[in-house]
Amino acid sequence: MKKLFIVANWKSYETNFEAIQWIAKFSDYNFATLNNKEIIVCPPFTVLSELATYIRKNKLPVRLGAQNVSPFPKGAHTGEVNAEEIKVLGDYVIIGHSERRNEFGEDDEMLKQKVNIAIENGLMPIFCVQGVETCIPEGVEIVAYEPVFAIGTGKPDTPENANDVIGKIKEINSVEYVLYGGSVTPENVDSFTSKKLIDGVLVGGASLDPDKFFKIIENS
Ligand code: PGA
How far, in Å, CA of 209 to CA of 65, rounded? Predict the structure, then answer.
């Protein structure tokens, strides 16, 4: 059975109270048969610490990640959260999401800096691309193909096209895993993860509901 990464991207949603409600509900599920699946939750920075404590205490098979990382090491960078700080709480970081590229002007150079500093600090980047042409910095092992037209629209790419694009990404770059992201639901997840070249999914909207997110994991 191939390894699958099932990643929740909570974006700018969930207060501490809501996050604890989410994880408490999620922890009721039976994870025993999900050995080949790496479950990764990427919440806002503000709830990482509380979730980390809960996951450790309840021995849940859930890994944590951040949705962003400072391109700088610790220092006088007001408002930034650096890789060393994130690594204390989680193992992954989403880098290059189209929302950050478009809303915050993150360019290839800055994304490369973020990837480098994440890797130096032992974080695994989940690097988002919108298609084959997006440049992927060296050292990235996990990529998420997320076509902009599919993000938050309820109109996912076709599994066939996603598999083709992911095949090309793997051909051109030396990346190990490529996930699909964009309007993934419990109903359509299997059509993506059953494709030979797709190594998992990055889930936005549907990951905010713990029942739906567990169904996505189960159905993948
Ligand atoms: P969506 O978002 O699942 O809500 O389409 C995916 C993403 O932006 O990572």
Answer: 18
